[in-house]
Design goal:
GO molecular function, one term: xanthine dehydrogenase activity
CATH topology of the domain at 2-184: Ubiquitin-like (UB roll)
InterPro entries: 2Fe-2S-bd, 2Fe-2S-bd_dom_sf, 2Fe-2S_ferredoxin-like_sf, 2Fe-2S_ferredoxin-type, 2Fe2S_fd_BS, Ald_Oxase/xanthine_DH-like, Beta-grasp_dom_sf, CO_DH_flav_C
Strand content: 15-25%
CATH architecture of the domain at 2-184: Roll
Low-confidence stretches: none
Keywords: FAD, Flavoprotein, Iron, Metal-binding, Oxidoreductase
Strand order of the largest sheet: 2-1-5-3-4
Number of helices: 18
Shape: globular
Length: about 475
């Protein structure tokens, strides 16, 4: 059984189909049709809902952390121990919520299909903001697409909603809601079981290891932003899943003098502060990783584990010399991330083995990262590049250069690195290294970019890296190219 709050209503579910998304649960099981399906792939934001979780801040105070999610990519099992808020829950005692009222007064709704998603993103923004902030508003709304081109009034609504925001029913009930969430805090493995399909929800790494050993055919579910597409886009059935999002051990970020250790189930939005502090370029690129709804849900371990050749984090982590800790039963092994990827969607992971955490070395001052995509926000990379050099007295002593989107796996550019190491850091060396990239990669053409465009972009990004190190005042990193 799993338990969660539907606004303030306690829901206990056991026999639901584990493949059921929150979107379809709301619409088909509860008759709450305000949440819309636009794309069923996490791109449009029409299905946005907000999930509240217990959170203890650095001062030890408890509060509820509200986050926007794409309900079309969220399986119901991930709600265990949390609070689900949909657009129907905002209106209170016959009065529109302040974010809804702002949308009305600023004329932010046109055809109206996307409006519930915008409203829920605005609600989460308001809950997480102390004052109007244009940058945060753009970030919060980047995952919501309006086909009526009504963005200016929606941004005006965001400013109004976050300016002198009034107390709402969620604020007045916070103490009560915290107590209710504590009462349903999971204490043992939860389960959804429809007879032919099941999803197990362990609470510890040891329990996960035991379950995965017992069900080696199970699919591991973290954020689900990639896995759920098998159900929503390809109409496949996932007979057995194991949800790892309630394992606190796998959601920790530990900051040591020489490294970061990040639990594999840590949401990308939770990784931002630590990675940005260590490597500003990594943080900047995370801001362009899909949308805020996806970053609130997707995990760093999932972005590695699905072995996509266009995942944004693996090239950066490979360039930094990151390692992963793989767990199977009581056995753990540490593997260089670059050795994890073998071929397209093929990895070195053994049966019943899972990524427990990622180890990111610190102290690489010349690390830079770049993403080339058609849109600045909420888009997949055509090319993602990461450069990490050690230069001593003008001579390159070490070089790690990695790319995504250039091969069947995220991959180091070994010929390029060989052209760099031992050479003087100058334009001639860079041009030799650019030429060597043609030996490292034979990229494919697809709807994102041609092979010629990819190769030239990769070469130009190395040239860009050289220029930026020569003139560090230039702030043009992590740029989109259209």
């Amino acid at each position: 059984m799993i338990q969660f709050l539907l606004n303030q209503e306690l829901r206990s579910e056991h026999a639901l189909d584990p493949n059921l998304t929150v979107l379809n649960y709301l619409r088909e099981h509860l008759g709450k049709s305000g949440t819309k399906e636009g794309c069923a792939s996490g791109d449009c934001g029409a299905c946005t809902v907000v999930v509240g979780e217990l959170h203890t801040d650095d001062q030890g105070a408890e509060h509820i952390r509200y986050r926007s999610l794409n309900s079309c990519l969220t399986f119901v099992s991930s709600l265990h121990g949390k609070q689900l808020i949909s657009v129907e829950d905002l209106k209170h005692q016959g009065q529109l919520h302040s974010v809804q009222q702002a949308m009305v007064e600023c004329h932010g709704s046109q055809c109206g299909f996307c409006t519930p998603g915008f409203v829920m993103s605005l609600f989460a923004l308001q809950k997480n903001s102390e004052a109007p902030d244009s940058q945060k508003a753009h970030e919060a709304l980047a995952g919501n697409l309006c086909r009526c081109t009504g963005y200016r009034p929606i941004l005006a609504a965001a400013e109004q909603a976050c300016c002198n925001k009034p107390q709402d029913q969620f604020d007045s009930r916070e103490t009560e809601t915290i107590a209710r969430l504590k009462a349903i805090t999971p204490t043992q493995t939860g389960e959804l079981n429809s007879g032919d399909k099941r999803c197990l929800v362990p609470l510890t790494v040891a329990d996960l290891a035991d379950l995965y050993d017992a069900y080696p055919q199970a699919r591991l579910l973290a954020g689900g932003t990639d896995l759920a597409l098998e159900v929503t886009q390809f109409h496949r059935t996932l007979p057995v899943m194991i949800y790892v999002g309630n394992i606190e051990e796998m959601k920790r970020i530990e900051d040591f003098d020489d490294r970061l250790e990040i639990g594999a189930a840590t949401a990308l939005s939770d990784c931002y502060a630590a990675l940005h502090h260590a490597y500003p370029d990594f943080g900047d690129l995370l801001h362009r990783f899909a949308s805020l709804q996806i970053r609130n849900q997707g995990t760093l371990g999932g972005n590695i584990g699905n072995a996509s050749p266009i995942g944004d984090s693996p090239p950066l982590l490979i360039a930094l010399g990151a390692q992963i800790v793989l767990c199977k039963g009581e056995t753990r092994r540490t593997l260089a991330l670059e050795d994890y990827f073998i071929d397209y969607r093929v990895t070195a992971r053994q049966d019943s083995e899972f990524i427990e955490k990622i180890i990111v070395p610190k102290g690489h001052a010349l690390f830079r990262a770049y993403k080339v995509s058609k849109r600045l926000d909420d888009d997949i990379s055509a090319v993602c590049a990461a450069f990490n050099l050690k230069i001593d007295n003008g001579v390159i002593r070490e070089a790690r250069v990695a790319f995504g989107g250039m091969a069947a796996t995220p991959k180091r550019a070994k010929s390029c690195e060989a052209a760099l190491v031992g050479a003087t850091w100058n334009n001639a060396t860079v041009e030799k290294a650019c030429a060597a990239l043609a030996q490292d990669f034979t990229p494919l053409s697809d709807f994102r970019a041609s092979k010629e465009y990819r190769l030239l972009s990769a070469q130009n990004l190395l040239r860009k890296y050289f220029i930026e190190l020569q003139t560090p005042h230039i702030e043009t990193r992590v740029t989109a190219y259209v």
